[in-house]
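Weekly modeling sync, notes
Attendees: S.R. (lead), two postdocs, one rotation student

Agenda item 3: backlog of single-chain predictions. S.R. asked that every request posted to the team notebook include the full sequence so nobody has to chase files. The rotation student volunteered to paste the first one in as an example of the format we agreed on. Action items at the bottom.

Example entry:
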Amino acid sequence: MNASYGKYLDVNLSAGTIKDYELPQDWQTRFVGGKGMAARILLEELPQQATALGPENILVFATGPFQGTMIVGGGRHAVLSISPKTGRVADAYSGGYFGHELGRSGYDGILVRGASEAPVILALIDGIASLQPADDLWGTGTSTTEESLKSRFPGARVSSIGIAGERLVAQACIINDRSRAAGRPGFGAVMGAKKLKAVVVRGNLSKTLADPTRFAHERAEYAKTFLSDGYKRFGQYGTGGGVTALSEMGILPTKNFQEGVFEHADSIGGVRLHDTILSGRETCAGCPIRCKRAVATTFDGHQVLPEFGGPEYETLAALGSLCMNGDLDSIALANQLCNEYGLDTISVGVVIAFLMEASEKGLIDEPIAWGDPQAVIRLTRELAHREGRAATAADGLDVLARDIQADFSMTIKGVELPMHEPRGKQGLGLSYATTPRGANHMEGLHDTMLASEQPAREIGVLHAYDRFSLHDKAQPVKAFEDLRSFDNSLVVCCFTSRATGETYSYPAIRSLLEAASGLRVNSDEMIRVGERAYAAMRLLSGRVGHTMDEDGLPPRFAEALPTGASSGHPVEPSVMRAAIAEYYEARGYDRYGPTDDTLRRLAMEDCIGQLQRG
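Predicted structure, as returned to the notebook:
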């Protein structure tokens, strides 16, 4: 297939060997790349008995057809592996420039098997791969690691772990470009268990495109669509612009999801950030929007530096409203610490909010006050170092919750919830409940997208829906999951692939895909590509025990929010159970996952037999 190299780099850290992994042609046409391809490889290669931190686990860095082409939204890459939080395969995505460089490397991705006895880096430089000692980097932060490796390999891009990953903290992530994270599944700990400190990539190749002239023209025309006033405003305030709006809607996660309105929302929102501590705007490869923040400030005598980026919406909410913290400078410092230590900011915020509530209820003996900005900083440091009270959550928040008999761990299948409130986005709640990954906001329906009368006709979503209801939501939830799963197989940014309304962009994306790869994908096949990737992930989770029985939400969401514009709308457990059953029927799943008939419909006959039923 054009726009693909047709192979992955296959690295075995235990044996110290490196070889090529050839991709079957029919896999490329069915799964395209990114999430879908990586999941299909793992179905083939990952031993069923593998554990997240064991040497049998496989870590995958994946690109799609657009990486390396400088298309808007293509500055991303996917990472898949078994999550230490869930014990099953999960996926994460990161922006910046690492994915672009991998797209120019001569490989569509990297498989990392086994575990090294001593710290190593994997260097893929101008098509030549090698494993090199990293003893001198072990124990350093991600910024020192990146600076050192960029000095050694000029022009390269780096994905690395910090001390949190080295210490196998469940909330550890992989950081690239100093401020981008492949986040919540805990893949930093997977790299730490493998003693893989960093992956360094420098590419010098251009992909072979099916129609280079057409692609260049359509890429330029597509880029022009991001120069609108709406995108200019989005770039100006970034994702943090949503903090105030969501609080006004009553669905800004606050006080560990006990409330949906935060009285200091304006103090930590995107406008305040823009007007006070913003020092610059960053971007990803090929993107004119420049939505990424860079900030400069101080908190408690500590400098916050622009090279660590700045807090986005999820971070502002997780380390802000969720913890009742209205101090923007402290959130910026906590964000910097997370990037340096290699910690996922959403996960850290949920852990801290849990500890604050546990302290308030007397379940732990340490006083941790709601809204204390110094406590947010201290607990972030403790979690990364496995020290103090926060260390008790380093093996997973659910582990701590069970130990102290707390029923307010805001997790799904072991993964901390993102900063989107399912009582005011009940279709998203259905995605949360059923996802094989654990709580995931990046590949589900956000009900606020369905406010218009004709939100997404091409994928069969024909009318507006009530965001407070689960009635008739199964089919649109499935449709939007499949659409975003298609995105993640191309590995394009969801802020550039516009899924609803007059700016719906998928015909243009499919045309670009055809010009790049030669694949002709109509709207029906687009959904099937996404559905295949989703089914592959569900097979991976199903073969290690995921059934419909464990799908659901934390019990807190059965309680109505007390105040605000979204008060009075709990997620009724019986209604959710009925919606889950309807959703499984819409997907063609039985309680164990995709049926054989569904796999045949998706042209996935070669995956039949992955699930044990009964």
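Discussion: group reviewed the output briefly. Residues 523-542 form the longest helix (20 residues).
Action items: rotation student to repeat for the remaining queue; S.R. to check formatting next week.
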